[in-house]
Design a protein that fits this description.
The protein has 9 helices and 11 strands. By secondary structure, it is α+β, with helices and mostly antiparallel strands.
Length: 267
């Protein structure tokens, strides 16, 4: 399959074929995500259509091998690898099922904030890296049509993605403040909101507990919400009220509170 904005994808011989992908084109960032099996992604300066781009491939699940410059790099669940779209061809065979996200980003923008960027090509970023965890969580939250329907939101998301990739690769000493103020703060806030949504029914949902899970201070959590014009407590209250409203409207769900205490814990 060869389509503008996507890396060419070719079937592998004697392999079960699976191809389920979606793409987004943001200002300065191209994104492809989905599930692949029995195919090979290929990249050359000509096929990609740009000589000043890098490809940051992230495995959400599964195992892959990237080949470029006569080297091979294997990356597994949660890992990522940086490849160059400019100087030589690369390919990523996917003989077994993989859920992935691929990000095409401008070399010149990353080069301004990452030390020795060319030396990062073919380097695997482990999934255990805090910066990559933030990037992965941010991608999971933002890759949907609703979040990216606005041009203004798309520009902000693209900027945050570049910040987070730079942090994964090692931002220079001159740039950490700007990176922290952009993509990292946005990703941490999104991760905390996801955490809250998953624990709304938990009576022990406190700012101290949330901060501990995300290895930040309670004051940092409060500041993230204050910068959005709200508070941690107000955000939780709104989400709990929204949740209760949805449940009350759904006639298939019957709320049964055996005691006043159980009702208090729910709300």
């Amino acid at each position: 399959m060869r389509e503008r904005g996507l890396l060419p994808i070719e079937p592998l011989p004697d392999s079960d074929l699976q191809l389920d992908i979606a793409k987004w084109v943001l200002p300065g960032v191209g994104i492809m995500s989905g599930a692949l099996c029995g195919v090979r992604q290929e990249g050359t300066p000509k096929s990609v259509g740009a000589s000043d781009e890098l490809f940051f491939g992230l495995n959400l699940a599964g195992r892959s091998t990237a080949i470029q410059r006569g080297q091979e790099s294997t990356f597994g669940d949660g890992d990522a690898v940086l490849l160059s779209c400019a100087d030589s061809a690369f390919n990523i065979p996917r003989p077994t099922p993989v859920c992935f996200v691929g990000l095409r980003v401008p070399r010149r923008q990353l080069a301004a904030i990452v030390t020795d960027l060319d030396d990062q090509v073919m380097r695997v970023t482990p999934g255990s890296t805090d910066a990559l965890k933030l990037l992965t969580g941010y991608l999971r939250a933002m890759l949907n049509e609703q979040a990216l329907s606005s041009p203004d939101i798309s520009r902000v998301v693209a900027s945050h993605l570049l910040d987070l990739i730079a942090l994964c690769l090692g931002a220079t000493r001159d740039q950490p403040t700007a990176v922290q103020a952009g993509g990292v703060r946005a990703a941490r806030l999104q991760a905390i909101k996801t955490d809250i949504a998953a624990n709304l029914a938990n009576g022990a949902l406190t700012v101290a507990a949330v901060a501990a899970r995300h290895r930040v201070t309670p004051r940092y959590v409060h500041k993230l919400f204050e910068d959005e014009g709200t508070t941690f407590t107000q955000f939780i209250l709104r989400r709990r009220l929204d949740r209760a409203y949805r449940m009350l409207r759904d006639r298939r769900v019957k709320l049964k509170f055996e005691t006043k205490e159980s009702a208090r814990r729910f709300f």
